[in-house]
Specification:
It is built from no helices and 11 strands. A hairpin with a 2-residue loop joins strand 9 (91-103) and strand 10. Strands 2, 4, 5, 6, 9, 10 and 11 form a 7-stranded mixed beta sheet that branches. The protein is mainly beta. Helices cover 0% and strands 63% of the residues.
C-alpha cells in the first residue's frame, strides 16, 4: 500500500520561512509528478507548485520568487521551501504525487494525496 505523508507545517510570523516535506512510501514502481496544493477556508484547492521526475518546476503566480519546490528521488520525497511568507499564504497544504505502484500481482498508476498540513502566517 502506498502512503504520502506531509510534515513541517506550523505557525510563523509574516516574513518568516517554513519548509514542508512529503515522503511517499510503499510498493512504488515510479514516482512521476509531485507537488503541493493548498486550500484556504471557504476556498477551493489550488495548485502551489509542481515538479516533474526530471526536476522541472512550475509555480503559481502568487508564490513565484518566494517558494521553491525540490525533490529527492532517492528518498521519494518532495519539499517546499516557503520564504517571505504572507498572511494570505495561510491554508492547509496538501502533498500530491502521481505514482505507479504494484499491488497483489498487478500494476497501476494513480494520484495520491497527503492528509494535509496547516500553515498559518500571522500578521
Amino acid at each position: 500500500q502506498v502512503q504520502v505523508v506531509e510534515s513541517g507545517g506550523g505557525l510563523v510570523q509574516a516574513g518568516g520561512s517554513l519548509r514542508l516535506s512529503c515522503a511517499a512510501s510503499g510498493s512504488i514502481l515510479s514516482l512521476n509528478d509531485m507537488g503541493w496544493y493548498r486550500q484556504a477556508p471557504g476556498k477551493q484547492r489550488d495548485v502551489v507548485a509542481l515538479i516533474s521526475s526530471g526536476g522541472s518546476a512550475n509555480y503559481a503566480d502568487s508564490v513565484k520568487g518566494r517558494f521553491t519546490i525540490s525533490r529527492d528521488n532517492a528518498k521519494n520525497t518532495v519539499y517546499l521551501q516557503m520564504n517571505s511568507l504572507k498572511p494570505e499564504d495561510t491554508a492547509v497544504y496538501y502533498c500530491y504525487a502521481d505514482i505507479g505502484y504494484r499491488r497483489s500481482g498487478y500494476v497501476g498508476r494513480r494520484n495520491y494525496w497527503g492528509q494535509g498540513i496547516q500553515v498559518t502566517v500571522s500578521s
